[in-house]
């Protein structure tokens, strides 16, 4: 069986072989979701970047396709986005799929020069199978900053313009265009009082989203940060506010989209049906991504998650829910309506599983995933925070940052009452209260976890504990 090497996720996207990082060019077209990704097809570490390509009709089963974009004399192909040019504004044909990406000149970059990154476009008239790079590239030249990359482009109906959000050093710049070829700077976003140095800003996304309860539409600006995410290294933050076609204005304090260490470069699909906002992240961290103990391939994507927005006392928050079709992969294995704690169940297949339960509020709980060797991953839920600990989870010594400290997620005003864990070989996606809080973590046990243990404060019972197996997505 292929895709069956140790630690290889079975229902998360991974490249067939070699190195992958950010999702790129996420776009829906003609019934298919396209996933392009940062890809180095020669080694299992980062290097000259290409855009790998896969497509899916359900966001779960992926078909691997040939490499879409190769590096050339202008540079390596760094991250970016893709749009469908319905009205042929660029002149490449109506409904052309157009990729907007960064050229990165690594030689100049290594030599310490500044003008090393620029934005360029390529188009496809056959659903992303073959690509032609535009002769007039680059379409947006560097303004003299070393980090000038990861264009996210969308059509802004109200102004009839394309808008590009670009990460420029430690801020976001917005540009506009009528044809994707000529770009005009509109504004700069750099929050006031943002004193923390969060490293280089990367992979932005900007889109409107309607709040579930108030029906109010607000704009969300996602920014990925290279350093000092809540638990170290890289992470994804978001701002909520307004966009008037030129300027983004923040209306509340920034929040982190996922508080685990393994959720980065997250961006959303363009053109998804019914304006659904589906977000996908790279399930790793630059601190140790090139060292994780996998062979053949390196890195997976998170599961696609549906973004929503809810209003809490402390402001609006994004929610991330499993897409409904995820249920088609799951099969009930064991469930009980009322479960007394301490609870323990052995001989489970926790390497491809979904575990869910609810609790009366407030209720502190410690969830332990372990194996017969005593390697363990723990999730501690209290009233104010959730803490995950992978210090004895299995292989950890490939990098000292991997398990140096437990990971902490502070909670907002809502306490945790519903728990969902999605386990796939070497990862857990922890979604709490229907995706109001999320934490994504990697681990590398030397034997698969097979024992689930849950204890609660005051020995309060759990409700509706369900353990489901999850089917593999590869044939
Ligand atoms: C984010 C990132 C992007 C860049 C790409 C290079 O992980 O550093 O800013 O375009 O990866 O592979």
UniProtKB/TrEMBL annotation:
Domain of life assignment: Bacteria
Pfam families according to UniProt: Glyco_hydro_32C, Glyco_hydro_32N
Keyword Ribonucleoprotein carried by entry: no
Domain Glycosyl hydrolase family 32 N-terminal: 12-320
GO function term, MF aspect, one: hydrolase activity
Keyword set includes Hydrolase: yes
Cross-referenced CDD domains: GH32_Inu-like
Keywords tagged on the record: Glycosidase, Hydrolase
Segments forming domain Glycosyl hydrolase family 32 C-terminal: 340-468
Secretion signal, residue range per the UniProt entry: none
Record-linked SUPFAM superfamilies: Arabinanase/levansucrase/invertase (SSF75005), Concanavalin A-like lectins/glucanases (SSF49899)
UniProt similarity note: Belongs to the glycosyl hydrolase 32 family.
Protein name: Glycoside hydrolase family 32 protein
């Amino acid at each position: 069986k292929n895709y069956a090497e140790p630690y290889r996720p079975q229902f998360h996207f991974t490249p067939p072989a070699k190195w992958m990082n950010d999702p790129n060019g996420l776009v829906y077209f003609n019934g298919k979701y396209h996933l392009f990704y940062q890809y180095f097809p020669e080694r299992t570490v980062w290097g000259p970047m290409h855009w790998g390509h896969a497509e899916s009709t359900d966001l779960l089963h992926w078909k691997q396709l040939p490499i879409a974009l190769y590096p050339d004399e202008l540079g390596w192909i760094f991250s970016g986005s893709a749009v469908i040019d319905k009205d042929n504004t660029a002149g490449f044909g109506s409904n052309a799929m157009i990729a907007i990406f960064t050229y990165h000149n690594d030689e100049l970059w290594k030599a310490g020069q500044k003008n090393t990154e620029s934005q360029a476009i390529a188009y496809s008239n056959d659903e992303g199978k073959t690509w032609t790079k535009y002769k007039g590239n680059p379409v947006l030249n560097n303004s003299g900053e070393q980090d000038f990359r990861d264009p996210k482009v969308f059509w802004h109906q109200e102004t009839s313009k394309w808008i590009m959000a670009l990460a420029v050093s430690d801020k976001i710049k917005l540009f506009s265009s009528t044809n994707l070829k000529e770009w005009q700077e509109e504004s700069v976003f750099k929050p006031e009082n943002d004193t923390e140095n969060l490293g280089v800003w990367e992979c932005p996304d900007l889109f409107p989203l309607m709040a579930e309860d108030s029906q109010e539409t607000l704009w969300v600006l996602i920014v990925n940060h290279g350093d000092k995410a809540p638990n170290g290294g890289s992470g994804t933050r978001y701002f909520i506010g307004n966009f008037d076609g030129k300027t983004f204005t923040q209306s509340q304090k920034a929040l982190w989209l996922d508080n685990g260490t393994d959720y980065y470069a997250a961006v959303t699909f363009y053109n998804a049906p019914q304006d659904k906002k589906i977000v996908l992240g790279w399930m790793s961290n630059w601190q140790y991504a090139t060292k994780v103990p996998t062979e053949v391939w390196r890195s997976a994507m998170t599961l696609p998650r549906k973004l929503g927005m809810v209003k809490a006392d402390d402001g609006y928050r994004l929610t991330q829910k499993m897409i409904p079709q995820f249920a088609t992969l799951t099969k009930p294995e064991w469930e009980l309506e009322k479960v007394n704690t301490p609870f323990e169940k052995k001989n489970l297949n926790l390497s491809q599983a979904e575990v869910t339960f609810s609790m009366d509020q407030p209720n502190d709980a410690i969830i332990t995933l372990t194996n017969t060797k005593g390697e363990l991953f723990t999730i501690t839920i209290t009233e104010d925070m959730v803490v995950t600990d992978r210090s004895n989870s299995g292989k950890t010594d490939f990098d000292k940052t991997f398990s140096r400290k437990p990971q902490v997620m502070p909670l907002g005003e809502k306490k945790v009452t519903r728990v969902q864990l999605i386990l796939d070989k070497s990862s857990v996606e922890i979604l709490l209260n229907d995706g109001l809080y999320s934490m994504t973590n990697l681990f590398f046990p030397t034997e698969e976890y097979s024992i689930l243990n849950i204890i609660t404060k005051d020995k309060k019972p759990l409700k509706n504990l369900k353990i489901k197996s999850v089917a593999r997505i590869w044939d």
